[in-house]
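User: Can you help me understand a structure? I only have the sequence.
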Amino acid sequence: MEKYLSRRSFLGVSASAAMMATLAGCGGSGSDDSGSASGSGKEGGATLSVGSAYAPSSYDPANCSSAFCLSANSNVMEGLYNIDLHDYSATYGLADKDPEKVDDKTFEVKLRKGAKFSDGTDVTADDVVESFKKASAEGGMYVSFLSMFESIEKKDDTTVTVKVSIPDFSLLKERLAIIKIQPKDITTDEASAKPVGTGPWMYKELSDTSAHLVPNKKYNGSHPAKDKKLQIDSLVDATARVTAQEEGSTLISESVPPESIDQLKSDGCKIDKVEGFGTRFIMFDLDKDPWKDVKVRQAVMYALDTKKMIENAFSGLANIPTSYLPKSFSSYHKASVTYKHDLDKAKELIKESGITPGKIVLRTTDNAQVVAMGTQAQQDLKELGFDVELKSDQSPATYAAIDQMDSSWDILIAPGDPSCFGGDTDLLLNWWFGDNVWMKTRCHWNESAEWKELNKLMNEALGQSGSEQQKTWNKCFDILAENVVLYPVLQVITPTASWSTNATSDGYAVKGFKGIGTTGVDLTDVRTVSK
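Assistant: Let's start by predicting it. Here is the structure, written out as tokens:
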């Protein structure tokens, strides 16, 4: 039973929306809690198994960017508030009440009564304060997301005082959710290797290829683990991932290859397809010619045959963008400039720019779909007169080469999805266009008047609400579309497989599972069910 999941009905966009779902990511009206054919059987008490499309690296909750580790950590770590990845609403975490307003810039948050870490130690305000310091430390992954926090301080053992720089900051709970609370004395090395949290699960054993979790017996929140074990296996190879799902070695499999969807459906799996923010983006090196000329960048966008890319590399599971945000987002605004394949327009822009196309280097990461996009782009740009050398490598090697700033590349095509951290529009804008490595080191746009205007507007929007805020964000979307220094080429649809409408050969399925539109899986209240 296939469910096509749209998020529009879930998402609240204005800052006046009671600090709940702001702008968002994924969601779905599809797989409901009664989705198991074995629903009358025993629930829980078995092994909940997941096949991940990614490999683990550092688990450090204060600085984690690994898709595998972020997803695994979501079962172990809590913030004061958490994010529901189906609709990006803020839910209660270590705080079981909304922040109490002291004044326009000051709020108090109380910890859940009796909360303990999985090692048995009490959670105190000191742990929250120290976790904030770690997450907001200079050079950290989340710094730009937390810049509005002036301080988080201890009021008493179970209460923290939060001070922000923006009056009546509408995204308070969403941004507090980024800060995962860990024991104040845990070291970065210890947290990277095996975090300790307050969530429903705790880590028992971690390796380069898997994470083995067991229930956290100290957890006293509203979403306890129902199974005796959670096994997450790194199955980067798509064939291995599909095989494991077919055999029932995994009950849930993320990032199902498009060509395997019908196969898994015929085997009895349910497939959730969710529109998400996930992009396959293009980025230009503005530190060199001819990319300093906006007409040349726009010419490239018009030259790309995105329809062929979607058909050949994604089997139709992607959309051609008409804005920075997908249409399924409630604060979507059709940009002032949209790009569809138009070779004549591309050639005219090249002529207007006065440049003579020459040899360029197009880099891609080694993601199979992205490599296919790169091959198509190589052919498309040849039509404009460019001689394109295509280089594909693993993500770390690709970005290491780009970060050398030696002008050895011209264009990058790669995957990106900051919505795994949260779904509000400012976060999604800030990930690439804030005062960070993307703009300073990689794209070299941060000294431009357009970038400065963009960031001015982004800051203004944080203090606004309703239609006023939307109008400001619309201006941001237009600036990005007109300048296309880093912009989505495609916006993908994420398919996830689960044994939830039928049981595997050994009689197990999952109950309560819904796919999400970003990397990883959401396992809140998900449990096994037997015949």
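Now, to help you interpret it: The mean pLDDT is 91. The first strand starts at residue 3 and ends at 5. Let me know which part you'd like to focus on.
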